[in-house]
Amino acid sequence: MTLTLSKVAKTFPDGTRALNPTSLEIAEGEILSLLGPSGCGKTTLLRIIAGLESADAGGTLSFNGEDVTRLPVERRKIGMVFQNYALFPNMSVRGNIGYGLKMAGLPRAAIAARVAEVVALCRLEPYADRAITALSGGQRQRVALARAVAPRPRVLLLDEPLSALDAALRTDLRDELAELLRAVGTTAVFVTHDQDEAMAIADRVAVMSMGNMLQIGAPEALYRRPADAFVARFVGNAMPLGGRIEGDRLLIDGAVLPLAQPAHGTTAWVRGEDIALDDAGPLPATVDAVTFLGTHYRIKLTTTGPAPLFSLHHGHSAPRPGDTVRLSIPPHAILTLPAAA
Amino acid sequence: MRIAKALQLTLTLLACAFLLVPTIQSVLAGVTANYFRGLSSGLTLKWVAEVWSLYSGSIFLSIGLALACLVVTTLIGVPAAYALARRPGRGSRVIEEFVSLPLAIPGLALALALLQLYGSLQGFRAHWSFILVGHVLYTLPFMLRAVLAVLAAIDLRSLEESAATLGAGPWRRFIDVVVPNALPGVLAGGLTVVTLSIGEFNLTWMLHTPFLKTLPVGLADSYASMRLEIASAYTLVFFVMIVPLLMAMQWASSRAQRMFR
Ligand SMILES: Nc1ncnc2c1ncn2[C@@H]1O[C@H](COP(=O)(O)OP(=O)(O)OP(=O)(O)O)[C@@H](O)[C@H]1O
Ligand SMILES: [Mg+2]
Fold this sequence. Notes:
Chain B: Belongs to the binding-protein-dependent transport system permease family. Chain A has 8 helices and 21 strands. By secondary structure, chain A is α+β, with helices and mostly antiparallel strands. The two termini of chain B are 37 Å apart. Chains A and B meet through β6 and α2 of A and α7 and α8 of B. Bound molecules: adenosine-5'-triphosphate and magnesium ion.
């Protein structure tokens, strides 16, 4: 199902502007991730799509061309996975999964068949007859997903479905969830504030900040061609280099770094994996700290720039804190971005 | 250490005895042929039979009142608690306090107010529903608070929202999500309501008419005007009625609580 948002905004009764007018189109079967820091309006946007929150006058929302802006939540035929799962404690796993089917008025036999199918899809067979209270966090997450997909919703909405789990489990379930969402094949909107999660699960990622949608694109596109400094910083932790760009050269206190193309008046940013320790490099720096992380070293460097740089160094040995080193950055790896607001 | 334990045991036993001895004595008096000659006069069920013939109406009235009171407080208390739980805030606190006001007012004053207001409506004044109104006023806060406590402990809003996303309208959400999750509170509240209604004396004494005597009012009546044996047999009947009821409700509420753990 295609989901179209046109100038959807939200102002809460207390005057909080949680979402500025946002237009967006999500294609049939696409998985879109809303990525942004806490309080940027992700949940608000998701709840507007669900119908749990009404958009300000002027905004419209349509499913496959059908205007659903005024349709109450129970008639929108959406599926939602809540951050705290909100499973019904008074029903078994099966009862939870079958609830939406019961509301749709399906006959008993059809409900049982669909529940069995979804239970198998989400690998919940051993727990199907348990009480909700007798499940682990990961199992609850799967029940919440199963309950949401059972009635074959037109769009599946997930609000930070992994955030209630501990870190190790989160990584495992992330890939599992990505697989499941693809298997279900429903259009899905997935909220997260974790960039790895967004990248791993989504076809396209929408980066949000303070109620604005800054950039939408495939994970690679966001990473390689961020629209502004916020996106660069949020997706892939880009760091400001400082200095001054003149034509196709970056000047930092006498050091000259070549750029891929002229980018006069913009600011220069770089990612940790693109900073190489190179005795012939143009940029001098002092080593502040070295952290060994198994696959690589993370080296904290001080230059004359506005913030310390962190280099991800893949060599077999690393310099020591206090050493003076020289850095080189390949021209194509220097991101030239409009100055952040 | 052992002395402390023994002391503790003695104290507990003493406390039990303090509560139980008068009760047992009273119950025994109810089945003694002649109280003044003591147990040697023999045991009899004569007094119990007499209580039954004199006061069976009171017994049925009390049970009827308690059940009606349970139904009414449930029908008012659950939706009211739900409404208050959905909108927590200063207004809700004020309403909750207001509903709880009858707890702090002596039953006599409450009864007096009811009499002043409705006393002139003859049909109503002499009907058992008049006493019911008093009982509901007095017991409603217990039901309301018990249900509210349970509803406040669950995340009602997100449960209802998730039911809504699955296609449940407001009425289905109430029936499928709110009521079952409020059940432990309803049972705990119901236990209190039934117990209080059956045992209520203050208010009922003021509201009753000669043809409408509840169990406690009948008890007072028998103490005042009957032989001691009959009054004691009455106590026995009272116990036999209320203890199984209390046990059944206690069992139901602990069962419901286990269900939701
Ligand atoms: N009911 C409400 N009334 C007033 N303001 C609200 C309400 N709900 C959310 N907000 C405000 O709207 C803004 C966006 O909130 P939202 O919940 O959408 O953020 P979020 O991106 O989901 O954050 P998080 O990652 O912490 O969940 C925040 O500033 C929040 O304080
Ligand atoms: Mg949120």
